[in-house]
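Before the break, one more example. Copy the sequence into your notebook; we will annotate it together after we see the structure.
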Amino acid sequence: MIRGLLRILFYVAIGPFVGSIGAALAVGLSTLVTTGSLRDFRGWEALVSPALLIVSYTIGAMPALLTAAVAIVIDRQLKGWRHWLWSALGGAVISCILAWLILGMAPVDAGLQPVVFAVVICSAGAFAGFVCSALFDALALRFGSR
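Here is what the structure looks like once it is written out:
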């Protein structure tokens, strides 16, 4: 029970920040693939700006909490890299579903391509789920909580 609570706190504490890194990587890669430009890989210092952190934690706290719940459930069946990959899949699915429920078609109506929007949102959730799961397991192994 304590391990599950620690997992939830860990995911909520670092998940939104890691998700914003994943979203920034997805935006940069999509720009590179579609235009051949590296312009979106500049400006990484903006990830730690107070305004972006407020937005990241406001939007990302609920997907991080739900991804932690998925990780707790699958922790009983899977260990290691398989657990990390299933956590990534859970984070991607949860992020996409919540983005669709909250935002609806507003990003598409504003001119954003639906595929690009889905890839960025899913990448953010998947990256956060994978990294949080791997880091939590590494810290649990290091401090003897297994």
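The chain has a mean pLDDT of 88. Residues 2-142 form one domain. Try to locate both features in your own notes.
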